[in-house]
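Recap from last week: sequence in, structure out.
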Amino acid sequence: MHQDASSDETNNNWFGMSVKEASKEIVYGSIAGMVAEIFEYPFDLAKVRLQAQLLYSTQGRSTPSFNGPLDCLNQTWREEGLRGLYRGVSVPIIGSMVQTAGLFLAYSSFQNIIQNYYHGSVRYEGFKKLQLTIPQLGVAAAGAGFVTSFILCVSFT
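Predicted structure tokens:
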């Protein structure tokens, strides 16, 4: 029995998406999560240090070390350099990669599910993918957020 390329495509699919498409979403989501964490991490570090400063001030330490987030970032840069700004970033990067990859994959999957529901299994007209309406995109985004919330709240205990 002969199988053509279209039957291989349907056998290797996940919620209306081929394995190749799903892999692309995972890779792009992982890269986006990594880039986002690299930009966000120093600000999170400043927030944590400012919160810890408040904790120490209630335990007898009278003068605060930092006068705000920018002062915290400047002092960290001067005293510890780039390493100080990114100390401990490896685990948050992995978490952000997993979360954003899940978000990208879920969003694409929900778009495909909605596309197939309204337009059948025909997803392409020529080379152009059919456009979803704004409410349909909103439903896809809400579904992706719902799925991603389970990734964010995973407990390993």
